[in-house]
Please model this.
Amino acid sequence: MARGQQKIQSQQKNAKKQAGQKKKQGHDQKAAAKAALIYTCTVCRTQMPDPKTFKQHFESKHPKTPLPPELADVQA
Model:
């Protein structure tokens, strides 16, 4: 292999560049999406982002179960 050393240097340079790009990017989409899911259904443990969606879910999936008190005044 005539370019063995050059290949290794190129790989190291690329790894350093990729690490810099990842650090510059800051956050990932999965963590942000997971943080947005703050409401959890007490019956099925499904997570929802806002109370309106939570109330719609509860009324459609669990119609026989009484509505939780935090959803009583939410407009769906």
Q: What stands out?
A: The mean pLDDT is 87. The longest strand covers residues 39-40.
